[in-house]
Amino acid sequence: MLTSVAFVFPGQGSQVVGMGADLCARSAIARELFSEADAALGFALSRIVLEGPEETLRQTAFTQPAILLVSIAAYRILDLEPAVVAGHSLGEYSALVAAGSLTFRDAIQLVHKRGRYMQEAVPEGEGAMLALIGAESAAVAAAIAADGGAVDIANDNAPGQVVIAGAAAAARRVAAAAGARQAIELPVSAPFHCRLMAPAEARLRLDLDALPIAPPRLPVYCNVDAVRVSTAAAVRDALARQVSRTVRWTELVRRMITDEQLTTCVEVGPGAVLSGLIRRIDRSVQRLQVADAATIDAVRTQLTA
Predict the structure, then answer these.
(1) Distance in angstroms (rounded) separating the CA atoms of residues 235 and 233
(2) How does DSSP classify residue 264?
(3) pTM for the structure as a whole
(4) d(Cα 47, Cα 51) in Å, to the nearest integer?
(5) Could you give the CA distance from residue 52 to residue 304 in angstroms, rounded to a whole number?
(6) Any idea what the Cα angle at residue 81 is, between residues 213 and 228, rounded to 5°?
(7) Is 131 helix (H, G, I), strand (E, B) or coil?
(8) Low-confidence ranges of the chain (pLDDT < 50)
(9) What is the mean pLDDT of the chain?
(10) What residues does 84 pair with on adjacent strands?
(11) For position 273, what pLDDT does the model report?
(12) Which of 258, 203, 200, 279 is nearest to 84 (CA)?
């Protein structure tokens, strides 16, 4: 085990057509995992990931299993065990696969359903998500309370970066009132991690209740409470509640660094979004990224030197 090292797994938004192609070209492990994903889902997710089209990959029901697939492929090829794992939103499922709490097959089937449930919870165009740059969570919470609309903090990502979600008109009013330096409306098809996702939470909970979940064999920190979860019951409940509640990423990272005495965070999967957020949360922590064969080789060498 790598002491003082966390592996963190990205969520939706890190996808790009062709991600994982290098892994498949270089590793039988990746090729087998891509085939396993196709068999588990009953359609060619591998083709969507590797060939697109982009508009299909961007659909939530495909994006979520695609990112999980590439993240777990990178994790298995890296073949190192960290001291602790966590994931951002969807990435929490990748973290739980890495920790042995969920099987890959169960996880990829579940996140495909999760994406569909989230998409279907709110008719397209009725909700919105906005990233508020330069706004602090307390000021955003005050603006939400003053407005009284169906809006919530979806992601507390880092100091000065808060994402809100909810009914479109109310979310835009809150964005204007929250004191942000910039408000960026995100190109998503539904308002994730807010009260409007309650129907998706109810549907997902039924699936989770029927799913075999094991206690994590590695420490896992969950989004919804920003604490370590250690039992199957706690994992199941945290995953269900996460759909309609805030991703408390800033708090999670700070607590994980302190409690686990971390010196390094390795982002495992496509993109480098989480590495940028962690830099804003705590610059003392070393940040590494693993996404393709070259970075896997480099990071493995660095961590095992």
Answers:
(1) 5
(2) E
(3) 0.97
(4) 5
(5) 36
(6) 50
(7) strand
(8) none
(9) 96
(10) 6
(11) 95
(12) 258
